[in-house]
């Protein structure tokens, strides 16, 4: 009986390990936002180390929002030194979080929804350390309903 239990645990853990791996992802991280509200002056910083030589990457920005988020859209200011670590670029990206029918877009569980949008695609990057800084561009000084902000490099 102990042998069957041990084998079941090993199989379960092995399965979880296999399904938890993300194919092609070289960096994936989320930063938690203050539950009292994301301050307009609070910039989230992601430090990314890329090791592959002359490799093309896709970068995605990700949001985890609560169903209580008050707007249909979310505008983010993203500053990065990718693909050249000596030059900073600033971009604004838009997340459409609610469709025309009033339904929340993204995959959800309970009160939390996750949405991913392309930030940069097929960019040639040299090995090195890079930084992505994200702040919100909404009118609220303290934006409520955003739980986490993430970056995924694949």
Number of domains: 1
Give the beta-strand count: 11
CATH level 1 name: Mainly Beta
Task: Estimate the strand proportion.
Answer: over 45%
Give the helix tally.
1
Order of helices and strands: HEEEEEEEEEEE
Largest sheet: 5 strands, antiparallel
What is the overall shape?
A: globular
Keywords: Lipoprotein
Pfam families: GldH_lipo
Protein name: Gliding motility lipoprotein GldH
Describe this protein's structure:
- The protein has one helix spanning 2-20, and strands at residues 27-32, 38-39, 44-50, 55-66, 73-80, 89-96, 107-109, 112-125, 128-136, 142-143, 146-153.
- The chain has 154 residues and is mainly beta.
- It starts with a helix and ends with a strand.
């Amino acid at each position: 009986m102990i042998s069957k239990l041990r084998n079941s645990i090993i199989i379960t853990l092995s399965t979880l390990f296999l399904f938890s791996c993300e194919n092609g992802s070289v960096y994936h991280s989320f930063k938690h936002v203050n539950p009292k509200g994301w301050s307009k002056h609070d910039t989230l910083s992601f430090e990314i180390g890329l090791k592959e030589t002359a490799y093309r990457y896709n970068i995605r920005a990700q949001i985890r929002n609560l169903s209580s988020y008050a707007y249909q859209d979310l505008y983010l200011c993203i500053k990065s030194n990718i693909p050249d670590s000596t030059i900073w670029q600033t971009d604004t990206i838009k997340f459409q979080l609610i469709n025309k029918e009033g339904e929340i877009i993204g995959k959800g569980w309970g009160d939390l929804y996750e949405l991913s949008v392309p930030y940069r695609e097929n960019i040639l990057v040299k090995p090195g350390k890079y930084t992505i800084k994200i702040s919100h561009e909404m009118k609220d000084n303290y934006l409520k309903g955003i739980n986490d902000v993430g970056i995924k490099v694949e």
